Amino acid sequence: MTNYVIWTLLIPLLAGIIMLFIPQRVILQRTISIIASIILLINTVLLVFQIQTEGIQKMELGGWAPPFGIILVGDMLSGLLVLTTALVIIPILIYSFSSIGVEREKKYYYSIFFFLVTGVLGAFLTGDLFNMFVFFEVFLLSSYVLIVHGSTQKQLRESFKYVLINILSSALFVIGVAYLYAVIGTLNMAHLGERIASLTEPAPILTVIALMFLIIFGLKGAIFPLYFWLPASYTAPPTAIGALFGALLTKVGIYAIFRTYSIIFVHDPAYTHTVLGVLAALTMIFGVIGAVAHKDVTKILVYNVIVAVGFVLFGVSTMTEAGYQGAIYYVIHDMIIKAALFLLIGALVTVGGTKYLKQMGGIIKYHPALGWLFLVAVFALVGIPPLSGFIGKVLLIQGGTTVGDYWIVFLMMVASLLVLYSMIRIFLQGFYGKSVLSSKEEHGTTKGLLFPISLLIALSVLLGIGAEFLYPFVQTATEVLLQPELYINAVLKE
Amino acid sequence: MMKLNDIVIQTTTKFVLFIILAFSIFIFFNGHHHPGGGFIGGLMTSAAITLLLLAFDFETVKRILPIDFKILTASGMLIATLTGMGGLVFGGPFLSHTFGYVHLPFFGEVELATALLFDLGVYFVVVGSALTIIEMIGGDQ
Question: How many domains does chain A have?
Fold first, then answer.
């Protein structure tokens, strides 16, 4: 029997290593990277179907049984996120081919790209808290390189802040892991969950540690008071890299909160999950304020990333079936649509030659496809019914009303409306409006950029229409979140 | 480049270099049963080559050691990953290791473990990346 869990990590890792040997051969690197990502996609699809039919998959590294060895666990939540990652990187790669530039490609761009993907996939699949830290470092180190790659002045400045804040949060992560190890005596997540669940009277220190992990993952995933680093650092690098970050990096932080707050820290939900809910609400408010206030199209977009983090965390905080399902749907939808929007905005900035709304206009006249794709993406982002954002939000609202968080649900709807306003402003002013440039004055072409964007939009539409098809998978994922015993037994007892 | 007469440091380096290199290799092989291993062994080898860089100049060292350290790092990663995949080939899980006792002509009975190959990968990565950093920062003039 093939173990798809381990191959999910090995394929991008090997691709990255092989491309280290051939930095100068750009065409060969492009070929390898696209082949590797397609194999990865097939592998993850098989993994998801295997989890659906045979239950939770695991890989005990070196043959050492947990809790003593390191274990990789593929349950449905990780499976779906891994699959979405594999889906999203293909269009971003194709977009890189025509936009990133040969100079950057020769400086190990694709290797670092695949190391980042390895780190993200590893963080989704690991069953061990310290290994999660290691995989966090793998993708963070790669993201440090990518954010400064090409060394323009802006990238140098923003990468400095980004590295600083992430080193701080990594140090906190180590301290949090040390506290948890000192209190519980294990780092395997299933074992941690089992031991904490078996405590007759949970110690307050566990709640402290739970909040510490919320701070750590909040710094990675950009929740309310800890999102300040994100807007500048995600707009500094080139579009393809920004899309990669926007689609994957914050979602790893969200996934980590998802995982720890559903399996490990479930001893005092009245406190921890209320804090989570309040922070989620504040994240929505502040994200949406940023999105509405800015006149720079890239900034509008990155604040929308923050709003989405708030939506998903709210689903996690409800601890209900509908809430979890909504959060899973929404995180999958958001990975795809944020990648699409980053690429669209990148194409818009390339064509218009400016980031500022006031200076652009009438781009739809010469680029109708780009304009209408953008409109579809915006509708999908907000959740107009046939498109992908709808079902997630409906389930989130359902979950919220079940537990009586009416004010957060209300905030969420208002936030959705304002998200629509912020994005439609780009459409009305940038694409529609009065023409500023004639076709000869444009600053670049959309050649090669439209194909990957339409791939992502097609995915998003399919996700909306095929919600029924996806539902059983999401249900399987939710079962494990609602009954952590399933996860614990699968890891420890078999 | 070198204006001063640094005969003392160059002569000393020629002797000390081999002691450091030998010690680093000793430390590298020692790792399974005693303190040591790929990481510290690799750092010590890089220290030896750094000493060579201090005593002589970049061109000389490049002539003595015509190695692209970036390729060395990549090979180290490849070796480590392939060693891990060896476990998969033989039907075990990833990163599973094995060991055996081999009778070598000069050393007698020796315990050989596949963990040593993984360590060799680590060793290459450490030497390669440490020297790449030094080369990048120091070699630009």
Answer: 1
